[in-house]
Amino acid sequence: MNPLTTLTEESRLTLANLADAATDLAVPSVRLGVTGLARSGKTVFLTALVHNLVHGGRLPVFSAAAGHRMTGARLQPQPDDAVPRFDYEAHVRALVDDRVWPDSTRQVAELRLTIDYESASYFYRKLGPGRLHVDLIDYPGEWLLDLPLLNKDYATFSAEALQRARATNRIEIASPFLEVVGKMSPDTEENEPAAQELSAAFKSYLAGCRADTHALSMLPPGRFLMPGDLDGSPALTFAPLDFPADAGAARTGTLRSMMERRYEAYKAHVVRPFFRNHFARLDRQIVLVDVLNALNAGPDAVADLEVALSEVLGAFRPGKRSWLSSILTRRIDRILFAATKADHLHSSDHDRLEAILKRLVSRAEEKARFKGAEVDVLAMAAVRATREATVKHRGEALPAILGTPLPGERLNGDTYDGRTEIAMFPGDLPQDPESLFDKDESLHEGVRPSFQSAQADLQFLRFRPPELDTTAEGLTLSLPHIRLDRALEFLIGDRLA
Asked: Which superkingdom, per the lineage (predicted)?
């Protein structure tokens, strides 16, 4: 049994899987989860994936398209009527017409893409054309970090949250929150103003950790920074308290018992329904990772990202796909980790970006492979915002990228207006990814000179989406990308064989 579920819940999941399997008898389906931590490009990835499949984009590594076996792809009504639809059309308008990046993922959303294809097998081709429903499930990666809470009581949650807050890389951000915690006695009488003050200070601390300056990733509870229609509810109005591990059970009517009750309500009404209704029904998963943002923020952000990715993969239900397991106990049999925004680097550095991500997920990857799941890592850009060129600087030819920075972006004292295209050399990532992870304790704050040197040499700007070319007939071409086709081949290529 999965540690996140009870026997009753596993029975419910089995019944739900049986219902899904029954609907798959006519046309098979695959449920693909798309997630990533803040600003990793989930919305852009989903929009580009659908746009390229529907509009016949250039996908040379995606075998069904490259071999001309994919005969069509179209959007259809999604199977889950109670889940918001992913607003694909609005996101395409933002990217193509307005050349702005669409809004970030704030809730679970779904989209069904149906692909018509000819099988690569002679036997199956004789049976007629194939059809596959791809149900795309978009959800915030921060919600994944909540799943381990299902196995933790309030005392454990409090101890871990306060330990993180007091760590060297967080103590300055957390000091206002820790000051509020310090003046609150867990055994004082419960009262709403104290709960509101604690919760507000805790949320401000989490928001400070997520800011680009720090770019920290371990920020549970995940719904605190994107509350949606639960904003202001008691289930989202709690915070950790400082009390001994051996303090025993909380007395009824105390602040601690109030916080503990609300923490349990958060798990029951927020975390568990997400697990049961969405997460536990996935077949495949892609996790998008903004490695470059963490590198910009420094070694603490990189170390925190490594821990968060390990927690994320620990929440998955990986396993080898079989006919029986897909009906009784659904498992994620393929997981793809993708370092996004590869277009911010020259292609000569893409292998290095991929190597850094592989190092970030190495421990978690081993666990998934052990349980029978396939795991892959790649560097990609779902929408390529730059082009490559070579520029001369003091007689030396340097690899550069060309693009239009977003309004307000700054570099070397210049501020860009969102209309001017520039050429820039973003720098080189280190050849050895270990140089970004190993710490020398003899140095101030444990930061190796190699990390400081690599960080100083790198400069990343945010670029506007590209202006799309049109054909002589006036047709707009599909969104350009880097390795979106490789991602598609890994995630659904075998289902179209």
From this structure: Bacteria
**What phi and psi, each to the nearest 5 degrees, are found at residue 6?**
-100, 170
Is 162 within a domain? yes
Domain assignment of residue 189, given as a range: 145-269
Residue 446 domain-assigned (yes or no): yes
Indicate whether 430 and 411 sit together in one domain. yes
Strands, DSSP E only, in 208-289? 284-289
| 458 compared with 96, residue with greater pLDDT | 96
Q: How far apart are CA 258 and CA 264, in angstroms?
A: 10
What whole-number distance in Å separates Cα of residue 430 and Cα of residue 355?
A: 10
Residue 409 has which token pair? 């972006």
User: Rounded distance, CA 218 to CA 312, Å?
Assistant: 10
What's at 442, amino acid-wise? Answer: S
62 Rama class: left (phi>0) / alpha (psi -120 to 50) / beta: beta
Distance CA 24, CA 133 (A): 9
Query: Could you tell me the CATH number of the domain that includes residue 35?
Result: 3.40.50.300
Long-range contacts: 398-403, Cβ < 8 Å, 24+? 398/425, 399/346, 399/348, 399/425, 400/346, 400/424, 400/425, 401/343, 401/344, 401/345, 401/346, 401/425, 401/426, 403/343, 403/461, 403/463, 403/464, 403/466
Residue 340 within a domain: yes
Residues 13, 126: one domain? yes
> Tokens for 7?
């026997």
> Is there a single domain that holds both residue 345 and residue 488?
yes
What's the predicted TM-score (pTM) here? 0.87
| Per-residue buried b or exposed e for 34-57, using 16+ beta carbons within 10 Å of the residue's own CB | bbbbbbbbbbbbbbbbbbbbbeeb
Last residue of a domain, one of 216, 236, 269: 269
Which tokens go with 136? 């795309």
Q: Within this chain, do residues 380 and 391 fall inside the same structural domain, yes or no?
A: no
In a domain, 466, yes or no: no
**Is residue 198 located within the same domain as residue 345?**
no
Long-range contacts of 389-396 (CB under 8 A, 24+ apart): 389/423, 391/423, 391/425, 393/425
Which tens digits make up the pLDDT trace of 199-257? Answer: 999 999 999 999 888 889 998 999 998 887 888 899 999 999 999 988 999 999 999 99
Q: Which of 248, 252, 341 is nearest to 289 (CA)?
A: 341
The reply to whether 194 and 97 lie within a common domain is no
Best CA proximity match to 142, nearest among 263, 250, 228:
228
Amino acid at 278: H
* DSSP labels, 292-344: HHHHHH-HHHHHHHHHHHHHHHHHS-B----HHHHHHS--B-EEEEEE--GGG
Residue bearing tokens 């390229």: 52
Of 176-185, 286-295, 424-433, the one with minimum mean pLDDT is 424-433
183 and 282 housed in the same domain? no
Domain tally for the chain?
3
